[in-house]
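Researcher: Please translate sequence to C-alpha cells.
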Amino acid sequence: MLNELSYTKLKLLFINVFAILHSATYLNVYRLYADLKNVKAGVDGSNEEIWIREIFTFLISGLIVVRFFLCFVGLASNIVAINIYSDQHNHLATLVTFNEESHSLGPDSVDEVELANQNFYVS
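Model: Translation complete:
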C-alpha cells in the first residue's frame, strides 16, 4: 500500500496524524486545570484594581476553555478526514481494478458477456 501512495497523499496523511497528536496534547484535563490555576495566580499577582483582575481572569480563562474545545473539534475533524480519505482511496482502487479488468477483456469476450447477459434476462 505504501508503494501506491503518492508524495502528496503521504504528506496529507502525515499532516493529519501530526495535527491529531498536537490536538491530543491540549486535551489533557490536568493541563487545562494547571493553565486555569496559573491564570488566577498571574492576574492576582498584578497590582490592578479587583474588577480589572476579575475581568482579565474571566476573559483569559474563557480563551483557555475555548482552546480546549477547539482542539477537541480539530481532533475529531482530523480523524474523520483520515476515515474519508481511506474510503475514497479504497473506492478509487476498486475502480482502477475494475477498469484494468475491463480493458483486459478482448472485444470478442465483451460481446460474449453482453450476449450472455441478454440471454440471462430473456430466459
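Researcher: Any highlights?
Model: The mean pLDDT is 75.
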